[in-house]
Amino acid sequence: MGRSPHQYVVERRLADAKRRLSQSDKPLAVIAHVSGFSSKNHMTDTFKKILDVTPGVVRKNSNQSKTARVGDDFYQDLAHGGDQRVVWFVLVVFGA
What's the pTM value of the predicted model, to 2 decimals? Predict the structure, then answer.
């Protein structure tokens, strides 16, 4: 095994957040919540602690940065496993 269940979950969250950061310009808070972090600050602290880099640097260094779009792809993400906390967050922040 070699790693705890918690370490596995954190690694999955980081991988998901890195993918999202490289593929979109969505706000960091949205990426943090959709990726399973409790807040933008929690995601940033985890990136610094484990990867020794901030989410902003990951985004800046990405060659695939796209125009921000909180649209169909985002809501499809929610439909395929998003929880009530994320749905609430989107409704409050984006007034959907």
Answer: 0.64
